[in-house]
Amino acid sequence: MKSGASYATDMPEGIAGMIAAASDVALTVSAGGKVERLLWNVEGAEAPDTASLVGAAIEDLVTEECRTKVREMIADALAAKPPRWREINLIVEPIGELPVRAQGISAENKVIFVARELRAVSALQQRLLEAQRALDEDYNRLRQLQTRYRVLFQTSSEPLLIADGKTRRIQEANAAAGRLLGVDAGELAGQVLDALFAEADQTSIRDLADRVSASGVTEAIAGRAHDADVSIECRITVFRASDQMMLLCRLSKGEREASDQPQIEELLHGMVDRISDAVVLANEDGEVLWCNEAFLGIAEVALASQARGMALSRFLDRPGVDVSVIISNVLEHGRLRAFGSVLLGTFGSETRVEISVALLPDANPRVIGFVMRDISRYDQMPARKNGPSAETQDQMMNLVGTVPLKELVRASTEEIEKICIEAALQKTGNNRASAAEMLGLSRQSLYVKLRRFGLLES
Questions:
Q1: What tens digit of pLDDT does each residue of 300-313 get?
Q2: What backbone phi and psi angles, to 5 degrees, belong to 290?
Q3: 273 contacts 293 by C-beta, under 8 angstroms
Q4: How far is Cα 367 from Cα 356, in angstroms, rounded to an integer?
Q5: pTM
Q6: Pairing state between β 96-107 and 110-117
Q7: Which partner for 88 in 66, 333, 424, 427 could form a disulfide, CB atoms 3.0-4.6 Å apart?
Q8: Which tens digits make up the pLDDT trace of 69-116?
Q9: Which element (helix H / strand E) includes 90?
């Protein structure tokens, strides 16, 4: 028998020794569910007062969710069904909840519960969950980085190719490179870099790629495209991705046709007129000179000609204040980025917007451009994992004056409440019972708040 074992004095020594060798905790329970004998043999844990537990209902010695399991184990044992292991949580006064793996064995119209404590297994499971959570966070972070890279790479206006440093085979190409070479960007993957150029230039490209790979110094070369009658400058930079040498190739037109610029300006004008963000051009007095369709929709104006000449302050909250301050700052600094305001429609609608402003100095007289993004669909108080940040404080500052103080205080209170609950769960290792006690809440109240803040599953 292990040292430190304790058991009821009326249990025969021989039987107690056998049970002690096979279990950490053993209970003899009557058919009515009353504890008659108790053996305690858990290392590193203070033994409970066994005498006070004799006569207690077995259901009172387990957590609420385990009571059904205990009743089923007693019924199965009395019905002479083959015993099977079940995991239950005992409530032991000195140490609180004790996870055990137990089975019920029938003996003379009684049931002997033989159990092995699972504290070590529970700790390992907790460590496994924490490791899995860290792995998931790393995976999500990697996916975010990949998404950001692909967005930047594919939306870049500069034609870019990424090729293997040894084979010079193209791994990735963005849309701008496809447009420059007159092919679909997907068709470039797998081709050899020098095959994109005319035969007369292929040797020079190969030599340049080998030279850059060996020296690490960025170099450029000009040549003619193989499938397009255009001169191309290729600037090659070498970089290492893990254990593989890669080549970043930046392409540009060697000769720019004079007819390209008007076409680009027409495309740009068409894009600005059709994008979902509201765009307004105004003079130094804040009068509308031009606006796109998105602005007309938010401002509830039927025609652009009706908005032309109107004061932009007519459409912004706190008329006569914001626009004058914005214009004076833009004329001094050249641009303003992402500040919040409210755009007022002609018929009384209010749309929360994020405004970026830039001065167009080439125009005479000077023109100021406003880009207004509808952010009313976004959550104005984003959830935070690590407590309040300077960014969140700036967002709250931007809301001052755009929403009533009562709504701002209520949103801030809910955000602080959520942060406190997250902190309590983190400190207690996601033990919700301990977290509720730490916060001075009942378990039911804590579960209600977890469900409201979307933290129940996490």
A1: 898 888 899 999 98
A2: -160, 150
A3: yes
A4: 14
A5: 0.36
A6: antiparallel
A7: 66
A8: 888 888 888 888 888 888 888 887 777 788 888 888 888 888 888 888
A9: strand 86-92
